[in-house]
Amino acid sequence: MGLALCRPARMLGAEPFFMELISGIETELATRGCALLLQVVTDPVQEVEVYDRWWGEGRVDGVFLADVRSPDPRIEGVAGLGMPAVVIGHPPRPPAPSPPCGPTTPRRCGTP
After folding, report:
1. Cα separation of 47 and 74, whole Å?
2. What is the per-residue pLDDT across 9-38, written as a single tens digit (0 to 9) for each?
3. What angle (nearest 5°) sits at the alpha carbon of residue 44, between those of residues 7 and 60?
4. What is the pLDDT of residues 37-62, one digit of tens each?
């Protein structure tokens, strides 16, 4: 299984979430006799290129996608390859629209 992370390599040690994620993935894969192929990339386009190369070379049986965005070209990219993928998380939700201001909604518009 593969995981390409789009972030500076020096940040991985500073972000406990990713260290826990990688540790958990490794632990589970090890019970199945598999390992994690990890690469740090600089942008989402490079991430898709890495997945394409890994898949073409037969280096992975699938990938993990983290830091999902909306829209996310990686999802279409791996689907187009026919590559199995596990999506970790979900894209951020856009903020809810503000209610219209009026006499029935004074507190929502910031008035006491």
Report:
1. 8
2. 777 777 788 889 999 999 999 999 999 999
3. 90
4. 999 998 888 999 999 999 999 999 99
The enclosing H or E element of 37 equals strand 37-41
pTM of the predicted structure, to 2 decimals: 0.75
List all residues 6 or more positions away from 4 whose beta carbon is below 8 Å from its beta carbon: 38, 39, 40, 41, 46, 47, 50, 51, 63
Q: What angle do CA 47, 51, 52 make, to 5 degrees?
A: 115
CA dist 86 and 62 (Å) reads 8
CA dist 72 → 57, 64, 77, 87 (Å)? 24, 14, 9, 11
What confidence score (pLDDT) does residue 109 get? Answer: 47
Backbone conformation region of residue 35, classed left if phi is above 0, alpha if psi is from -120 to 50, else beta:
beta
